Amino acid sequence: MHILVTGGTGYIGSHTTVELLNQGYQVTIVDNLYNSSIKVLDRIERLTGKRPQFYQTDILDLLSLENVFKENNFDAVIHFAGYKAVGESVSIPITYYQNNIAGSLNLYQLMAKYNVDNIVFSSSATVYGDNFQVPFKEEYGSGDTTNPYGTTKKFNEIILTDIAKANSKLSCVLLRYFNPIGAHPSGLLGEVPNGIPNNLVPYIAKVASGELEYLRVFGDDYDTIDGTGVRDYIHVVDLAKAHLKAIEYTVKHRGIEVINVGSGFGYSVLEILHAYEKACQKPLPYKIVARRPGDIATCYADTAKAKKLLGFECELGIDEMCRDSYNFTKMNPDGIE
Ligand code: NAD
Ligand code: UD1
Fold it and tell me: Which of 4, 12, 128 is the best mutation target for the ligand 1 pocket, counting ligand atoms within 8 Å of the beta carbon and taking the most?
């Protein structure tokens, strides 16, 4: 099977490509390298012995993207390409709607034209917003989003649902990721945040490496185990494997399914910090500061549907997530360059 992976040199896309190649899938990556390095291809080759076909193409460039479809015969698409920084999306919403909506529409249009009927889309637990009780269940639908990034995910879910209604051959899995962290255990692939990280584990990694002085813990007065925010963290290699299961599912079914991908467990900020201290074997300084606007107290997944439909369950725990994140940080002090 030949899979088109948009955003395949990025954090989740590169790990997924490794798993696909290891399972014998043929992979073509389309990425404009806005948030990733061409060197990721060398790393993928070192890990798998195979080099995926690569197009440095912007999905906003319809003509170039069409050439990719003309030159290949894809069986399925995994669509990762997009912008993902929540805070940035609030400042430059047009850019986010342009890239994440208009870019996606180009892709969906070409899939229809070239009869590619299977797609796995990267959605996010952010579409639940602050509207529901945990654990978040797919049947809740989606709530009011709190930022343009989240809205682009919600809109893509709606657009793909409408396309599935119009095209009975379409098979689509909307994967709602919870909080992917960690890195490939080899230390060759991982997340390289741009500038000062907004997300918890990339920030802690920089405290562990000495680049940042201390972690700011955003609030300790939530109604949680220790007052700090609780999230459902998933190892990026587990998340990558969920995509293989989702691809297998799309080729055997028609229609559209929303599926959570998380561990089903919630850890607090301080629990993560202490797990990371264990991984790097040193205390990590932190200060409690005010709550971050827009944050919710607790977020974790109901994982029953992923287990039932995909046969997917996480294998790696919080210790492996912190170990692999720290290992990647140590091995790549300047990122993947
Ligand atoms: P990433 O930034 O590492 O990867 C995205 C890739 O897409 C990058 O390599 C970037 O260069 C590429 N890209 C962006 N715009 C493009 C365009 N117009 N044309 C071609 N390529 C383009 O992000 P990631 O963490 O790997 O996330 C992958 C997907 O999963 C995104 O859609 C993201 O919104 C979604 N997601 C991520 C998380 C997370 O915590 N990482 C959580 C939920 C959902
Ligand atoms: C963020 C995004 C969300 C996205 C998700 C997965 C925001 C507001 N939301 O959510 O849309 O789907 O990542 O990528 O950015 N924390 C600190 N100090 C820090 C950083 C974080 O205490 O320096 C706390 C947060 O308050 C939260 C927890 O750590 O309780 C996790 O934060 P983060 O990694 O940013 O993820 P989310 O808030 O779940």
Answer: 12
